[in-house]
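New here. Your pick:
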Amino acid sequence: MTDRLKGKRALVTAAAAGIGRACALAFARQGAYVIATDIDENGLATLKAEGVQEATRLDVRDSAAVLALAQRIDAVDVLLNAAGHVHHGSVRECTDDDWDFSFDLNVKSMHRTLRAFLPGMLTLGHGSIVNISSAAGVFKAAPNRYVYGATKAAVAALTRAVAVDFITEGIRCNAICPGTIETPSMLGRAEALGPQGRETFVARQPMGRLGTAEEIASLAVYLASDESSFTTGVAHIIDGGWTL
C-alpha cells in the first residue's frame, strides 16, 4: 500500500540517522511532504537524494530556532519527535550535567517542538504527534539506564498529557516504545562493550535478533496516517518480546 500519507506535511527531528531517518524516508515513500531536521547536515544532505523533499539544520535544544522553523514552514499535519541520547550508567555515574543534558534533549526538546508546532495543528483542526519513547523505563527497567529510563518515562507521560488535553480538538498524540534497535547509535554502544558487544544485546532478545529502524518506521507510518484515527494517548511497545 502506498500514498497512506498523501497530502500530509510531516516534520521529523533527528532525521539524519537511525529511527528518525527511517521514519523520514518511510513518510516520503507514503506520499508525505517531509521536512527532515537534525544537527548533522551531512546526514541530512543524503536524505534529499532518497526522496525527502526538505532537509534543514535544527538544534532541538534551541528554543528560538525551533520557533523560527515553525514560523517559516507554517503548519504540519504530522510531528515526529525522535531526538534522544542514551546515557550509560546508574545513579552513581549520573552527574547533574548528565541528568540535565539527558532531560534537555530527550524531553524538553519535545516540549519545544510541541509548543512551536501544536498551534498550527490546532488551526488546521487536526494533527498526529508521534514521540519516540522506549520500552526501557516505561515497561521494564534496564541496567545502567538510570536517567535514560527516567526521560523515556517522562516522554510517555507527556504523550498522554497532550492526548487528553487536545482530544476534542482533532489532535492525536502517541508514543512508540522500541526495544533494542540496530542503529548507528546502538552499534556504537555495543562496540564500547568490546568484541562481543552486539551479541550481548542480541542474547537478551527472545526472538534472537535486534529490531530494525524500518520496523519502527512502519508503526510510525500507521500512527501518522488516518488509519489510526481512533488511537491516541497510547505507548505502543515494539520490542521483539523483550518485556514479556
Q: What stands out?
A: The two ends are 31 Å apart (CA to CA). The chain has one domain: 9-181+214-238. The mean pLDDT is 96. The domain at 9-181+214-238 is CATH 3.40.50.720 (Rossmann fold).
